[in-house]
Amino acid sequence: MSNRRRVVRVPASSANLGPGFDVLACALAMHVEVEVEETGRFAVETDLAIARDRRNLCVRAFDTILAASRFTFRIRSNIPLSGGLGTSAAAIVAGLLAAESFACEEVGRAEKALGGAPAPPADGESELSAGDGPRTRLLPAATRLEGHPDNVGAALLGGFVLCADADAVGFSVPPGLEAVLVVPHRPVRTREARAALPAAVPMADAVFNVGHAGMLVLGLVQGDLDLVARGLDDRLHQPHRAHLYPRSAALVATARELGALGATISGAGPTVLLWCAADAAAGVRGRLESEAAGWADVRATAFEPRGGAVVDAG
Question: Residue 77: what pLDDT?
Answer without folding.
Answer: 97
